[in-house]
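Narrative of accomplishments. A recurring question from our advisory board has been how the design workflow behaves on a single, concrete structure rather than in aggregate. To address it, we present the structure tokens for one chain from the evaluation set, followed by the sequence designed for it. No filtering or post-editing was applied between the two.
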């Protein structure tokens, strides 16, 4: 397999290649240039983000590859709430990208944070590779997804590298702050993609690519005040749900933990149950993922609806379900 073009950009001094389980992943799907493990510290204070000399304030031309970028908080969030739609977009010709902002280090009561993060990184790499997604490294620890400058500089740099046409991320309000903050960071990183005077880490030129942001359902389909959240539209994931389950099964440490506490296969069944619940909300599909499109201002044209357009034969709008005037998108 030829090496990815971006391997030329790898800063080997910052990459702990020994931590990459090369035998277990499709290396071609991992952009090593995104690896910055040296920036993640376990249990200690975060390093400040240095403001480095930036490249001249120019923008790179619009990219021709259509890309969709799923940005979530923790390992397994994409699997639960976004992966079916991501897979459909791949089938529709999009290059798909996968990133968990936090490394999953708090996902164990038995192992220390560094060990847990290392295990969960390997699981997430395998999950992304299982669907042919480009994996991007996490940038912080669990419960440290703060809407702060260091995280914003790092995420914006990655968004500029990917130059997505579609960003999939969490609900603007979700059951825990990591999810809510991940959403805020993703939205602002997408907003700042084309602002050359905003310095990013590592430095990358701004991009002009229009981007449309979509919000997944909050966990449990409710906001923190227990109010039901209904999506604008539903994507049929009936033919993708077992692929999602197989992807989720890559997170073996979480499956083991939850199976021991909640019963065999509780972890995997929770995904089926979640998609079935959204499917019932759709009134049309057995299994579904739900989405709301972000306001276009600062991101794309008012008419832009790339997800709805690409997957038009797999979507039902909430208004149509309720007997209204039908979908408001092309
Ligand atoms: Zn999460």
């Amino acid at each position: 397999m030829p090496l990815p073009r971006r391997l030329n950009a790898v800063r080997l001094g910052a990459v702990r290649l020994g931590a990459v389980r090369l035998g277990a992943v499709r290396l071609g799907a991992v952009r090593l240039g995104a690896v910055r493990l040296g920036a993640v510290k376990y249990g200690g204070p975060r390093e400040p983000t240095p403001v480095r000399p930036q490249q001249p304030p120019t923008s790179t031309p619009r990219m021709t590859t259509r890309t969709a970028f799923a940005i979530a908080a923790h390992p397994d969030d994409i699997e639960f709430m976004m992966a079916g739609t991501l897979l459909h977009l791949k089938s529709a010709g999009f290059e798909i990208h996968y990133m968990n902002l936090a490394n999953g280090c708090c996902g164990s009561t038995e192992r220390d944070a560094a060990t847990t993060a290392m295990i969960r990184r390997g699981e997430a790499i395998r999950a992304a590779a299982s669907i042919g997604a480009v994996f991007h490294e996490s940038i912080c620890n669990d419960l440290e997804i703060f809407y702060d400058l260091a995280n914003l500089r790092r995420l914006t740099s990655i968004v500029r590298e990917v130059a997505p046409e579609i960003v999939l991320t969490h609900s603007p309000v979700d059951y825990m702050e990591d999810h809510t903050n991940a959403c805020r960071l993703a939205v602002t990183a997408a907003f700042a993609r084309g602002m050359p005077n905003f310095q990013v880490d590592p430095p990358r030129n701004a991009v002009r690519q229009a981007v449309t942001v979509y919000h997944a359902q909050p966990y449990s389909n409710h906001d923190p005040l227990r109010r039901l959240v209904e999506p604008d539209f539903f994507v049929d994931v009936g033919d993708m749900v077992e692929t999602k389950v197989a992807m989720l099964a890559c997170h073996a440490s979480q499956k083991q933990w939850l199976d021991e506490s909640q019963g065999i296969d509780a972890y995997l069944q929770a995904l089926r149950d979640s998609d079935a619940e959204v499917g019932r909300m759709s009134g049309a599909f057995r299994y579904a993922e739900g989405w709301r499109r972000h306001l276009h201002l600062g991101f794309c044209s008012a008419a832009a609806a790339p997800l709805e357009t690409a997957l038009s034969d797999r979507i039902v709008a909430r208004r149509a379900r309720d007997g209204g005037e039908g979908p408001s998108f092309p």
